[in-house]
Amino acid sequence: MKSLILTFIVALLATTTTQAQWSGGSSTSNTTYRTGDVLIGTSFNRFNDELSIYDSGSPSMSITRGSSAGHLQMAVAGCTQCYSKLAYNANDVVLRANGINTGDLIISNQGSDDIVFTLGTAGNDSEYMRILAGSGKVRMSTGYMNTPGNYRLYVQHGILTEKVKVAVENSSAWADFVFDTNYELLPIEEVAFFVDENQHLPDVPSADEMVEDGLDVAQMDALLLQKIEELTLYIIDLNAELADLKRDIDVLKK
Q: For the whole model, what pTM was predicted?
C-alpha cells in the first residue's frame, strides 16, 4: 500500500514538473521554448491564444533593447488616461513607443500585401482605411473604391474641414499674366460667339468635362481669376470708350 502511494506521488510530481518547466535549462543564456501555449497570469478569462497575458489591473507587454533605450509597449489601459491621455475608457487598448530614447514608431508591411485598418467585432469587422502596397496610396472607404490617377489620398463620401490651403506650383500657374502688356485679350465679339456656340466660357471646362475629370482646385481658382482679370480689362476698355463718347458729346454741345 505504501509502495502504491509513493508511486502515485512520484508520478504526480513528475507530471507537475513536466507541465511547469520549459525545455532549454535554467541558464539565462540558453534558448527556452515550449510546444504548448504560454499563459502569464491566471487562467481567468483566458482566450484561445498561443500567448495570453492576464492582469486584473492593466495588463501590458513590452519589447525593449534595455533600460536606456525606447521600447514598444502594448497594454490595456486599465484606467482613464493610463498609457495615453486619449484612453478615456479602462478597456482601451494602447500601442505606443515609450521611453527616453524612443525612435520612430514604424508600421511596415514588407510583403506584397496592403496594410488594412478595420472597425467592428471579431469576425464581423469592416474596412475603413487601406494603404495600398506598391503605390502607397491611402484609401479611406467602407469597402472597395477606385483609385485612378497618381494621387496619394482617396476619401469616400468627402472631407469636412475648417481650412484648406492649396499650393501653387510656380508664379506662371497663377493668372497675373493677363495684365502683361503683350497679353492678347480675345475680342468681346468672339467671346459672345463662343458662348453662343458652346454654352460656357473659352478655356473653361464644360459640365461634361467636369463630370469626367473632376475639379482641380488650384487650377480652377487660377482659371476663374484669369476670367475676372479679363473681365476687368473689358471694363477698363469700356470705360475708356465711354469717356471718349462723353468728350465728343461735350464738344457737340458747344
A: 0.65
